[in-house]
Structure formats: C-alpha cells, structure tokens
Amino acid sequence: MSAASEDRATICAGRTEWCDTGARPAIAIIGDSHAALLAEAYDAAGLPVRLLSSNACPPGWKFGNMPPLDAQACDLRNTEAIDRVLADADIRDVILVANWPSYEPRDIAKHAGAVIARIHRADKRATVFYGLPYFKGNLPAGLAKAAWWDSTPPSLSRPSILQLSGATMLDGGSVLCSGTNCPAVLDGRVVLSDGNHVTRAIARTRLRDLVKQ
User: Fold this and answer.
1) Structural domains of the chain, count
2) Helix, strand and coil in the chain, % to nearest 5
3) Within-domain flag for 193
4) Most-buried pick from 14, 24, 103, 123 (CB within 10 A)?
5) What are the angstrom distances between the C-alpha of 161 and each of 45, 72, 101, 117, 180?
6) DSSP letters spanning 112-135
7) 10-residue block means of pLDDT along the chain (213 residues)?
C-alpha cells in the first residue's frame, strides 16, 4: 500500500507557502510543514484558514536544533508571519503547529510560550496542535518490508502529552491512536508518508473530524 499519490499537502500549491484557503478567514495556522497538513483538515471541514508555513521552522524564536543561518531565517519568517496575523482584525484564532518532539521541552515552553503571550496581548485565542504519532524510519517502506517478509506490520509511537500555559491543546493523536496503540493503517490508508508527516488523505478525513468537533 502506497501513500505516494496522496502524501503531501497541496493546499497552497501553485501559490506560496502562505495563503488564504477561503475568503476572510478567522483562523490562522502558523508553523512548519505540519501546518500545511492541518490546513488540509480545516479545508476539508469547510473552514477557511490563513496558512503561514515554513518547512522545518517551528512557531517561535531562537529554537535550537537547527544551523545558525537556518535559525536566523526561521526567526525572520516567524516575525513576519506573527506580525501579519496579529495585525489582522479578522483573525480571531491562531493555531501553532510543529513537529514538537524534535525540540527540547524547555525550548517549547520558552519560545512557543512567547508567541502565545503575544497572541493574548493582541486579544486573540491561541491553540497548539500536537500529538501526531511517529515512526522511526520511513513508514511506507516499513510496511512494504513487513508485507514482503509476511511479518507483523509496524506500529507507531505516540508522543508525550504537551501542555503550554495560555493555549488550548489540540491533540491529533486522539483521532489516530487508541491509548498508546497507534496503527500504521487506518480506514485502509497509510497514516504517515514518512516518519512523522500524516498523509494528505488522513489529514482530510481523521484530522478533519477532529477540527470539526
């Protein structure tokens, strides 16, 4: 089973990494490549969003785990994205998205926390999307190997619970896992396109149901 034809987000394809998915959105999504997949979920739910995503760039300033030049570029992108969103009176809700397990908890609390504080000062609501399961390796390749050897399909890991003061926490794992059990295939669809990105098909079905709640 392959996720090749439906793995990546196409919500802003042919435009830019930053776009509105409908007229006058009240929701902004800021983050790394996972933000584009969450935007797919909102689009499938009929909820327009302003998407501001940059690959490998978590929403906050001075995150570690990246080369200095990349970190500087990420900080500049975040400043522009956050300033643009907070200045827009139509935007009422701001959702922060990242591959959070890649970063130290103290960095998340400090740097994402600073963004949350700015969101509140602008009289907007802050939400943090987290909890997507992950696989140590490439999941489609792991499934193919298991099928070839007629062995048990691999399962996914669920990250630790994340809590950030001042934000509503939206747990993607709640619709992809049952407790700590996170299957690699749901509804006949491969869950991940690699080791940590959900497929576009999963975003537009399982995550769609989550954001509609």
Assistant:
1) 1
2) 40, 20, 45
3) no
4) 103
5) 25, 29, 10, 21, 11
6) IHHHHHHHHHTT-EEEEEE---B-
7) 51 70 95 94 97 92 80 93 96 97 90 96 98 96 94 93 95 96 95 96 97 93
- Tell me which residue has tokens 């993607």: 172
We report the CATH number of the domain holding residue 41 as 3.40.50
CA distances from 174 to 10, 37, 204, 207 (A): 24, 16, 15, 9
Number of CB atoms found within 10 A of residue 69's CB: 8
Residue 56's domain comprises 7-133+160-178+199-212
* Residues 95, 58, 64, 161, CA torsion sign: positive
Do residues 127 and 168 touch, judged by C-beta distance below 8 A? Answer: yes
Burial 20-56 (b: 16+ CB within 10 A, else e): ebeeebebbbbbbbbbbbbbbbbbbbebbbbbbbbee
User: Rounded to whole angstroms, how far apart are CA atoms 192 and 128?
Assistant: 20
Alpha-helical runs (H) found in 1-156: 33-44, 68-86, 105-107, 113-121, 139-148
Spatial separation of the C-alpha atoms in residues 56 and 99, rounded to whole Å: 8
- Residue 159 DSSP symbol: P
**Does residue 151 lie within any of the structural domains?**
no
